Amino acid sequence: MELARSVPIDLDPSLRSFDVDDIGLCEKSWSRLPVANSPHGRASHSATTLDCFRFIVIGGGTCDPSSGSWTHFSDAHIFDARSRSWQQVDAASDSKHGQFPARRGHCAGLWKADEV
Fold this sequence. Notes:
By secondary structure, the protein is mainly beta. It has no helices and 8 strands. The strands form 3 sheets. It has a 4-stranded antiparallel beta sheet with strand order 3-4-7-8, with no helix packed on it. The N and C termini lie far apart (36 Å).
């Protein structure tokens, strides 16, 4: 069965924030968690786990529904479930790799400990 969507997924306004929810297994209910330093919501980004508690989100973008024009992000953010906070990765200070190029619709994987 195919689900009907009223807007393309890239234009879905629910993707404009990185809200974090928690499921109470005993209560069988969802609740919104307070999260610090959330990045801009995005679509077509890449995300991969770094360890049991952290994952990284790279690139992606947002689309203005009125014009259909895209803004692509050249950033990366790490979410830590223990502290419930986001931290922006400063790639410019990494002399080995330089800055992140703006991108969307790509993938990433963990190569070695903390090397994506």
